[in-house]
Design brief:
133 residues; globular; 60s Ribosomal Protein L30, Chain: A; alpha+beta; 28% strand; 32% helix
Length: 133
């Protein structure tokens, strides 16, 4: 059995490791799992615009995957958590970024509506599974 390797995203990941004692990703063999990535910057600030928040969450996933040697091209499963439901804006922005970040494949996706997320102003959190072969 492969030993788990834990990864911390530079910037916000270091801050979260120090404050809350958790890693941003784990790699076991060829499988990478990320923790939920919000649309925060390195100071854990959330943009006012929902579209900007979603865009930042996608960039944060990219940053986190990169620490493990993976990228969006390796993503096979996405879970997204949404405060306020799945408006046409949310669905359209998510689908746009899926097409932009993964033009050659369409991963499986689970959307979950939630009452709140870790930071009071967060409206979206995304976690992924990637297979690096």
């Amino acid at each position: 059995m492969n030993k788990p390797e834990f990864f911390v995203t530079p910037g916000y990941g270091e801050r979260l490791l120090n404050g809350l004692h958790y890693s941003q990703a784990v790699k076991i063999g060829d499988r990478v799992e990320t923790s939920g990535q919000g649309g925060w910057d390195d100071d854990l600030q959330i943009p006012e615009s929902l579209a900007d928040e979603i865009a930042q969450a996608f960039r944060n996933i990219e940053r986190t995957l990169a620490t493990t040697g993976a990228g969006w091209e390796h993503v096979v499963h996405i879970n997204s958590y949404h405060v306020g439901g799945f408006t046409p804006e949310v669905s359209n922005v998510m689908a746009k970024f899926y097409r932009d970040y993964m033009p050659n494949h369409a991963p499986i996706w689970t959307q979950v509506g939630v009452a709140e997320l870790a930071l009071p102003t967060m409206r979206i959190e995304i976690r992924v599974t990637a297979i690096v072969s």
